[in-house]
Design goal:
With about 600 residues, the chain is of the alpha+beta class. About 30% of the residues lie in helices and about 15% in strands. Strands 11, 12, 13, 14, 15, 16, 17 and 18 form an eight-stranded mixed sheet that branches. Strand 2 and strand 3 form a beta hairpin. The N terminus is likely disordered.
Length: about 600
C-alpha cells in the first residue's frame, strides 16, 4: 500500500513538473547589449551613422554579404542567386535574385505576402537620389555612375517636382521579375563591395515607404532575420525574430588554421537561423553604468569595452583572471577604422587654403598629443594613425609613417609665430593675423569619454596659447549639425564597411560635401586622384595614387587622423558564437544563448 502511494505521489509530482519544464524550454533566447551613442533612425536612405546601420543590417537584406567566420573576408550571395556577372570592362553588372523570399508582414501589404523582386532593388537604389530623402550618401551612389539615375534627380530639382520613380533609366533596370542589371558610366571593379552593404543598400518595398510617408524612419520593413518591435528613441530598441524569414541554416568558411572558427562551424553547422528570438539594444552613453550592467549579468555582450576599464578587465591585453574564472570570453581586434577630428574648410577662422590657414591647422595638429590620448583616454586601446587609410583596407601599411602623427609643440608655436598668430593685445592668448581674437570652437558630447577629450583639447591648446570654447550636444544632434556645415571642429570615428580604401577617401572628396565629407574639403588634384582610383583595379598604379592622396591630406590638414582603435568585446559564458565582423555589422543571427551556462 505504501509503495503504491509513493508511486502515485511521484507520478503527481512529475505531472506537476511537466508544465514548468515546458515553460522553461519555451523561454525565448534574448541577446542584450548596449551602445555608447544613440541611433538616428532605421531608413537606410536617410542615415549613415554606425549605430543605426547596426540595426538596419539585421532588418534589410543586401544582395551579397560577408561570410561570418571568414578572415580576412569573403563575400558570398545573400538574396542573390550566385555571384554577379559583369562585363570585361566592369561597366555592366547583372544579378539574379532568388525567388521565394518574402518581406516581413506589415499593414502596408494589406494582408498579402509580398515577395522580394528585382524591382525592389531598382526602387531602393533610386531612393538615394530622391531629393526628398536628403540622403547623406547620395554622393556615394552618384559616384557609382548608374546611367541616367542622377538625371532624374537633377530634373526633379530643376523643375521642383517629385522624383519620378517610374521613369525607366538605362543604368538601373529590372530585366525581368528576378534579374537586376546595372550599367555604369565608368569601370567599377569593386562594385561587389557596395552590393554587399545590406545595412544601406538592402531592399525596401515601395508600398511601405508610401504607406508610412515621413514616418518611414520609424517603420523599417525588410526581408532580414529580425524586425523592430519597440523603439524608445535614444534609449531602447527591441527586435524579434522575423516569422517570415526564409529557411536558412548556419554555414561559413573559416580558414583552416582558425581553430576557434572551425569549432563554431562544427558546433552550429546546419542550425536554423536566427538562433536567438529577441535582441534588446540599450543606449547608455556613460561608460561606468554600461560596464557595470554587463558585469552584473544584465547584458550578454560588452560591445566595445569602455577604455577606462581596460586596465582592470584586460590587463596587458589578456582577460583578467577574475573574469576568466566567471567564464567570460574576449574578442580583441585592431579595428578597421580611424578616429579623427576635422575642420570646416569654409569656416572663416580655420578654413581655407592660403598658407596662413594651412599653418594654423597644421600647428594645432602638431600640438595634439596623440600619444597622451592613447595612454590617458584610450588606456592603450588604440594605435596612432598615419593617414586616412584604415587597417585591412587596400593600401594599409603598418610601417607607413607620415607627419600626421607627429607631436611637436615647439614647431607648432614657430608656425603660429611665423604666420602672425601672436598675442597682440597682451591678454596671454594668440590672436588672428588681423588682430581679431583667435577662438577655437570644439563640438563635444555629454559623456565621460568626451569630457576626457575636452580636457586634452584644453591642455594642448593652452600650451599653444589658443583659446578653446566647447559646445556640448547629443551625438545625433552634432551629426546633424556637421552635415549642415555648422561645426568648426568635431571629433568622431569612421569605420570601414568594406576592404576598399575608396569610402575612406570620400571623407575628402568635394562632391561628397554635406554627406561623407564633413570638412567640405575641396582640392582639384585630390578629386582627380579619387576619380582615377575609382576606375582602376587594385595594383601598383592605384597604390601610387593613394600615396599621393595621403601626402596631400597631411599637407593641407583638413582632417587630423588620430588613432585606429583596438576593440575589445567581452561576452558572458552563455553567449555562444560571437565574433566581431571586420566590415559588416551583422552578428545577431549567428549567435546563440546557452541557458545551461547561466549562473
Amino acid at each position: 500500500m505504501t509503495a503504491r502511494l509513493l508511486l502515485a505521489g511521484l507520478a503527481l509530482l512529475l505531472m506537476a513538473a511537466q508544465p514548468a519544464q515546458a515553460q522553461q524550454a519555451a523561454e525565448p533566447k534574448v541577446l542584450r547589449y548596449a551602445l555608447n551613442a544613440a541611433e538616428t533612425g532605421f531608413d537606410p536612405a536617410q542615415l549613415n551613422d554606425l549605430y543605426s546601420r547596426i540595426m538596419t543590417s539585421h532588418i534589410f537584406d543586401g544582395l551579397y554579404e560577408y561570410d561570418y567566420l571568414a578572415r580576412p573576408y569573403k563575400i558570398r550571395p545573400n538574396v542573390a542567386e550566385g555571384m554577379p556577372e559583369h562585363s570585361a570592362d566592369f561597366r555592366t553588372w547583372t544579378i539574379k535574385i532568388r525567388p521565394g523570399i518574402f518581406f516581413a508582414d506589415d499593414p502596408a501589404f494589406k494582408g498579402a505576402r509580398r515577395e522580394l523582386v528585382a524591382e525592389d532593388f531598382v526602387y531602393s537604389f533610386k531612393r538615394f537620389f530622391d531629393p526628398a530623402s536628403k540622403s547623406p550618401i547620395y554622393s556615394t551612389l552618384k559616384d557609382v555612375g548608374m546611367l541616367g539615375v542622377d538625371e532624374l534627380r537633377q530634373d526633379a530639382l530643376k523643375h521642383k517636382k517629385p522624383f519620378d520613380y517610374d521613369h525607366p533609366v538605362e543604368g538601373l533596370r529590372a530585366l525581368d521579375r528576378y534579374t537586376l542589371q546595372l550599367k555604369l558610366a565608368a569601370p567599377r571593379p569593386r562594385l561587389l563591395f557596395t552590393l554587399a552593404s545590406g545595412d544601406l543598400f538592402g531592399a525596401v518595398a515601395r508600398e511601405v515607404v508610401e504607406f508610412y510617408g515621413d514616418k518611414i524612419s520609424a517603420h523599417p520593413v525588410g526581408t532580414g532575420p529580425f524586425l523592430l518591435k519597440q523603439w524608445r528613441r535614444s534609449s531602447l530598441m527591441v527586435f524579434e525574430r522575423n516569422p517570415a524569414y526564409r529557411e536558412r541554416f548556419y554555414d561559413a568558411e573559416p580558414s583552416a588554421d582558425d581553430a576557434a572558427g572551425q569549432a563554431l562551424l562544427a558546433r552550429f553547422k546546419g542550425r536554423r537561423l536566427p538562433m536567438v528570438d529577441r535582441v534588446e539594444v540599450a543606449i547608455i552613453e556613460e561608460d561606468q553604468p554600461r560596464w557595470l550592467s554587463f558585469l552584473n549579468g544584465e547584458f550578454e555582450l560588452s560591445w566595445v569595452l569602455p577604455a577606462p576599464f581596460a586596465n582592470q578587465a584586460i590587463p596587458h591585453g589578456k582577460l583578467a583572471p577574475n573574469l576568466a574564472r566567471r567564464g567570460m570570453q574576449l574578442e580583441r581586434v585592431l579595428a578597421s577604422d580611424r578616429f579623427m577630428y576635422y575642420w570646416d574648410m569654409k569656416d572663416p577662422v580655420v578654413g581655407g587654403y592660403t598658407p596662413d590657414k594651412v599653418a594654423l591647422r597644421r600647428a594645432i595638429g602638431l600640438g595634439t598629443d596623440v600619444g597622451r590620448q592613447v595612454s590617458n583616454v584610450w588606456r592603450g586601446q588604440a594605435v596612432p594613425a598615419q593617414s586616412v587609410v584604415a587597417p585591412y583596407t587596400f593600401g594599409f601599411d603598418a610601417d607607413y609613417k607620415s607627419p600626421n602623427s607627429d607631436h611637436d609643440p615647439v614647431r607648432a608655436k614657430a608656425l603660429l609665430d611665423l604666420f602672425g598668430y601672436i598675442d597682440r593685445d597682451g591678454d596671454g592668448w594668440r590672436d588672428l593675423p588681423d588682430g581679431q581674437p583667435l577662438l577655437i570652437r570644439y563640438a563635444s558630447s555629454p559623456d565621460a569619454r568626451s569630457r576626457s577629450f575636452e580636457e586634452m583639447w584644453k591642455r594642448d591648446l593652452d600650451a599653444l596659447g589658443i583659446r578653446l570654447e566647447v559646445k556640448v550636444a547629443k551625438w545625433p544632434e552634432q551629426l546633424k549639425a556637421a552635415r549642415a556645415g555648422q561645426l568648426m571642429l568635431w571629433q568622431l570615428g569612421f569605420s570601414s564597411n568594406s576592404p576598399d580604401v575608396q569610402p575612406g577617401l570620400e571623407l575628402l572628396y568635394s562632391p561628397s560635401a554635406g554627406g561623407q565629407n564633413f570638412s567640405r574639403f575641396k582640392l582639384e588634384r585630390f578629386d582627380a586622384i579619387y576619380e582615377q582610383m575609382q576606375a582602376l583595379p587594385d595594383g601598383p598604379e592605384r597604390l601610387a595614387l593613394l600615396r599621393e592622396a595621403q601626402k596631400l591630406t597631411t599637407a593641407y590638414m583638413p582632417i587630423k587622423f588620430l588613432v585606429h582603435r583596438v576593440i575589445s568585446d567581452l561576452s558572458q559564458p552563455w553567449l555562444i558564437g560571437y565574433k566581431r565582423p571586420p566590415f559588416s555589422q551583422q552578428f545577431w543571427q549567428w549567435v546563440d544563448i546557452d541557458p545551461s551556462q547561466r549562473p
